[in-house]
Amino acid sequence: MNISSNSVVITTTHCSLYRFLGFLLFIASFFNIYICSRYFINQYSNKRKYFTINRTTPIIIGMLFSSTLIILTIVPVVIIQCFTCQSYLSYKILCKIHGFVCFSTGLFNMYIVALLSFSRYLSVLHKTSWLNQLLEQHSGLNVLCCALLAICWTLPPVFGIGNKYIREGVGFYCSLDWKDPSIYSRIYLTSVVLFNYFIPLILLVYSNLRVCFTLHHLLKSSGNSKYIPLSKTSDTTDRRSSEIDLTKCLIDVQLKETTNRLQRLKIDRHYAFITFIIAAQYLITWTPYTLVEILNVIGQNTFIQRNPFLPTLCGLLAKFSLILNPLVLIYSNKMTET
């Protein structure tokens, strides 16, 4: 049994797969709304008279806003299309809105993940640098700049500048016209891939690897530090006893400082691990879609034309990243506060 959708034949097997992915997307969206609601309720509850602000708070809010925007505007249409195996994005205005929201939130999350990794890198390796102080003092402004930068990249295609938004794959969602052969479109698409995937990819890999190796070395060094306790003899004078007590107090202070430093390093390692998970999860979910579109740009899309379900599956997989990222960050923040 085959189902026709916009002159694209959807087999029964592919339709069953789309329904399964639509169900997973519904479950992920439900958990996102539930956990995000509890997060804001806990932050603004009567038990807390103020909103806890730290470097990650604006990042969490930015991710929550983008995921909520996707869930409210894009996910319902995608889920309905997955279950019915029919496309409902035939109107150009709907396709433009759908493409703009998906593309802008995708780029925004890429910038946020890169910002999170780079901030963790500065806080661990260059804590006293002016750049680290700047990012820490203006964390909300940094997130706003990420949003404005994403809009600058994604708004021109709405008006047909550089490229345009069209239905992709079997028509379940809209994206850029990666097959447009015009010179301006090629320049725009190449710039999008270069500046919004490969450069952030290098930043993510470098920042996370440096942080992981540095924290591993510091924890290993702190764990090997030992102190020799002093012993008192029964025949010492009062002056000698006071000197020993003073030395013991200094050693206790040093031990306390070392313990606090070790605890901070463990917290940094925890945050670094969560940042690494977020970055890896984002790259894993977006890399297949990026590779498919690169093949379209360079004209090696014969296999994709024969299998139009492939970009659709990659696009659905990428949407999971936009929903899951804030949940991971909220969970890590809650564990660290505890």
TrEMBL record:
<dbReference type="InterPro" id="IPR000276">
    <property type="entry name" value="GPCR_Rhodpsn"/>
</dbReference>
<feature type="transmembrane region" description="Helical">
    <location>
        <begin position="187"/>
        <end position="206"/>
    </location>
</feature>
<feature type="transmembrane region" description="Helical">
    <location>
        <begin position="20"/>
        <end position="41"/>
    </location>
</feature>
<keyword id="KW-0472">Membrane</keyword>
<keyword id="KW-0297">G-protein coupled receptor</keyword>
<feature type="domain" description="G-protein coupled receptors family 1 profile">
    <location>
        <begin position="36"/>
        <end position="329"/>
    </location>
</feature>
<dbReference type="InterPro" id="IPR050125">
    <property type="entry name" value="GPCR_opsins"/>
</dbReference>
<keyword id="KW-0812">Transmembrane</keyword>
<feature type="transmembrane region" description="Helical">
    <location>
        <begin position="309"/>
        <end position="331"/>
    </location>
</feature>
<dbReference type="GO" id="GO:0016020">
    <property type="term" value="C:membrane"/>
</dbReference>
<feature type="transmembrane region" description="Helical">
    <location>
        <begin position="97"/>
        <end position="118"/>
    </location>
</feature>
<dbReference type="GO" id="GO:0004930">
    <property type="term" value="F:G protein-coupled receptor activity"/>
</dbReference>
<feature type="transmembrane region" description="Helical">
    <location>
        <begin position="139"/>
        <end position="159"/>
    </location>
</feature>
<feature type="transmembrane region" description="Helical">
    <location>
        <begin position="271"/>
        <end position="289"/>
    </location>
</feature>
<dbReference type="Pfam" id="PF00001">
    <property type="entry name" value="7tm_1"/>
</dbReference>
<keyword id="KW-1133">Transmembrane helix</keyword>
<dbReference type="InterPro" id="IPR017452">
    <property type="entry name" value="GPCR_Rhodpsn_7TM"/>
</dbReference>
<keyword id="KW-0675">Receptor</keyword>
<keyword id="KW-0807">Transducer</keyword>
<feature type="transmembrane region" description="Helical">
    <location>
        <begin position="62"/>
        <end position="91"/>
    </location>
</feature>
<protein>
    <recommendedName>
        <fullName>G-protein coupled receptors family 1 profile domain-containing protein</fullName>
    </recommendedName>
</protein>
